[in-house]
Amino acid sequence: MIGGNVTVDSGATLAPGNSPGTLAVAGNVTLAAGSLFVPEIDGRAYSAAGGAGSYDLLAASGTVSLAGTLGPKLRGISGAATNTFTPQVGDSFVVITAGNVTGSFSSVTQPTDGLPTNSRFDVLYRPTNLALVITPGSYGVFGLANNWSQNATNAAFGLDAVRPAAGTRDGNLQAVFNGIYGLEKTQLRTAITQISGEAYAHALQSLVQTERSTFGAMVQGSCDMSCSAGQGDADESLWINYVGDYADNSADRLSSGYTNRNHGVVGGVTIVSTNKVKFGIAASYVENKVVSQLDAHSQSQSGAGYLYLHYLPTERLVLSTALGVAVADNATNRTIATTAGPVMASSDRQSSTVMFTAKANYLTFKTGPLSVWTNLGVQLSDTSIGRVREQASNQAFALVMGKVDHLSGEAQVGGRVQLGFGSVEAAVMADWIYQIGENPAVSRTVELGNARWNVTGVDLARSGLRVGGQLGARLSSKVSVFGMYQYTDQGRGQSFNRATGGVRINF
Predict the structure, then answer these.
(1) pLDDT tens-digit map of 19-46
(2) CB 122, CB 181: distance < 8 Å
(3) Beta-carbon contacts of residue 19 (< 8 Å; ≥ 6 apart)
(4) Residue 230: predicted pLDDT
(5) pTM of this prediction exceeds 0.85
(6) Cα–Cα distance between 227 and 187 in angstroms, integer?
């Protein structure tokens, strides 16, 4: 115990404790610029009695004013120390306690022996104490060595590029680093994945799929039964269709996994209807919810308007085309687990999508109630979202997502086997699908302060398979009902399910 104030001048060294031990000061401690503070660390468990397995502590009753250099020591400790302790990422050692801690060290001199590969000591400055923590020397290299997803690794390298020097309080992301310093490797992987903003890639990937699925349901519903046999009545009609999708996308090398569910209605009016031509207008409203594995979720409400045209030149051929425009309100909420507690971040941004499709169905074989159709089609969409600026409970964690203009599409070729029994029609179908346009995993640019990186959704394959079944029944000359189920294998373990059902009224 020292009764009074202590000043460590430039060129002097303060090494508290008795290898290791505690130095108690009843007063203030001032570490001047050019001084050196050397805490010895021989284990994780602090003991007031000191000795092997413990570490040094400077305990002051007054204010500790910091400057100079911090030089932690792991080897060459005299006394009862074991000199064999090797700390791991996430280990934390409180080496100063005081009534008040002010200032900061200008640098940390890393031990030449005792630290694991790709690790370093960093400093957590708190109002009444100072902790030394073991962190990765490079978060990106640490992520690669521990098989983090590409999103997490991209964010880790992005943070490396702007990381302040050990022991300093410089940089506009100091609060972010304070939030991840002291996390062990599993916690660190979770936190940096959450920081990455991959929830926005999940939301965009799901939005593209939802609007594409709704568009397909519109084309199908607008001419179901009336086009399925290559001929139809000449009555105008009013139709409405329920659409529901579910997807469970597993985590992969790019991204954490997520689920998405959407449901809504699509309906329209065929305002020109002859045995050869059917033209109409339609609209849809769909709600979509995306839940990521790591405490993030997005919700969208999408409304769209469509024009559609079906041309039946012969009883063997149906040509269909449609154009649509959708507007969606997209809200995303994220949670980041930090050493100071959870940080909440959120945003709300509108998107717009323009869609086009062209399809051909050809009757290749027919005998009695059995018919076999060949299908060929393409669907294109262009989704635009402006820059997104988050609000957060700790604004240092708020992301800025770059503007998106995502052009994507799907080509399909396949067939349908159909049976007709009076007023009832049933069919099974299978299509090979191929993703065209930009990467189906989607990509979004991320800004956090002066750090930059990219995030993507799950790794969808370019090609996949879609199978399903369809059932329709004419209840009267004016009313018919129809329903369909489809299962799509997107490749690489990703899939989604779609169910639709509705009613048509002729007038």
Answers:
(1) 899 999 999 999 999 999 999 999 999 9
(2) yes
(3) 40, 50, 77, 78, 79, 80, 81
(4) 43
(5) yes
(6) 56
